[in-house]
Amino acid sequence: MPTNFPSLKLRFALFFYGLLWLILLPVIILYLRRRGHKDPLYGQKLAERFGRHAKPLQNPVWVHAVSLGELRSATPLIRALLAEGETILTTHFTPAGRREAEREFATEIAAGTVQSVWVPFEYGFAYRRFLKHFTPKYGLVMEIEIWPRMIMACRNHGTPLFMCNAQYPEKSFQKDQQGLGLRAALVAGFAGGFVKSEGQKARFAAAGMSNIHVTGELRFDQPIPHQHLDAAAACRDALVKGRPSFTLTSVVEGEDAIYIEMIPKASGVFFTYVPRAPERFDEVADMLTQSGIRFARRSALFDEALGLKDAAPDIDVLLGDSMGEMYFYLGLCDRAIVGGGFVPKGAHNVIEPLALKKPVIVGPHIWTIEYPATEAIAAGVCQLVGDEDALLAQVLSPTPVSDHQITRFYQEHAGGVARTLAAIPQALEP
Questions:
Q1: Whether 70 is catalytic
Q2: What are residue 117's DSSP bridge partners?
Q3: HSE on the CB side for 406, CA within 13 Å?
Q4: What span, in angstroms and rounded, lies between the C-alpha atoms of 70 and 98?
Q5: DSSP states of 337-349
Q6: Per-residue b/e over 127-166, b at no fewer than 16 CB within 10 Å?
Q7: Phi, psi angle pair for 416, to nearest 5°
């Protein structure tokens, strides 16, 4: 770790950054209250946002998973750490991440080996309380989350803080090299990183990070909930009725029009449509209704155990208005169309469908999933489409992909959990 961290320039920036957070505190509280109208969990346990906790675990491994995707990528590693006898603290910013943690680790939370809380706001005093309460052995920040106060507080407290399952997309890297380069400068404040590929290692090193270990992608080791696959198999024939079937995963705001215009053109094809955020379920339902597409909501058709309540209706689209059931939705399809690829913010996870040997289609914006999307495209298990016409063509006449292709690709990239577990003691050495 650089001995001159933070630089004088970064010290000045951190001062004004802290001042800005103080000024914006009323706006932040208002933001949570407004979000709380759509999701009440946003407004609950507000004291945790300021580092106050009633019964904290002592000396846990701290895993920061800002939202749902990050928590899912962390899950196999958390399971492995628990098996080694560790206790785990997970922190989140969004309700989706916290709910998933509380669902996935409900047994462990009841047993007192896992605790899930809100991550503190970016205030030095909040992080000082947080670190004093929990005294974590070390922290693992999933993916690429760079929070200045988190980084500085951990350095001051002596808590090693690592990026984990980290990637530095080329687009973000180039942007961070421009101007003052403050975000890139903060990378050097981490105690090290566990990154997805050699290319990512080179970028993090160029930004100033040391103690970097190439460990791969943890999502390749995610557990598969077979009860979801069994539920999908039980209803698939009745619902799909022998048609080609596609699941639209993690669809984000801004690309609904593309998919909703495509669906009527793909006559004789069944779609499962899964919005990424729960606050969008009603919005997407309204758009489907206005388009005249025959659809039904998962919440209306299925009970809590994912069994059909009544006979399957004659529909073209199942709207997946639930969280934590992606493998059920993927179990209904032949192929997956991964959301986010038709907006500049970028595509989401391609690994879950590939785990079920489902070929993947992605839009042009894959910079957020550079690894492993580039490798998946090269292996022929992921099809990159440049526009709406190319997407429709892939739906009507998909490129052939064999199970053997997907199995080989998956086997070549699995093992991230074992590599990370092996690297952690090395990274913690003085």
A1: yes
A2: 91
A3: 20
A4: 11
A5: EETTTTSTT----
A6: bbbbbebbbbbbbbbbbbbbbbbbbbbbbeeebbbbbbbb
A7: -65, -35
Contacts for 223-228: CB closer than 8 Å, 24+ residues apart: 223/75, 223/76, 223/79, 224/327, 224/355, 224/356, 225/327, 227/306, 228/306, 228/325, 228/327, 228/328, 228/331
Between the CA of residue 3 and those of 6, 22, 106, 209, 427, what are the distances in Å? 8, 29, 42, 12, 18
3-state helix, strand, coil in the chain (%, to 5): 50, 15, 35
pLDDT tens digit sequence for 308-347: 999 999 999 999 999 889 999 999 999 999 999 999 999 9
Return the closest-CA partner of residue 219 out of 351, 92, 405. 351
Q: Are 285 and 274 in contact (CB under 8 A)?
A: no
339-382 pLDDT tens trace: 999 999 999 989 999 999 999 999 999 999 999 999 999 999 99
- Its pTM stands at 0.85
Is 345:251 a contact under the CB 8 Å cutoff? Answer: no
Contacts of 203 (CB under 8 A, 6+ apart): 168, 170, 173
The two counts, helices (H) then strands (E), for the chain are 20, 14
Give the active site residue among 70, 100, 108, 217. Answer: 70
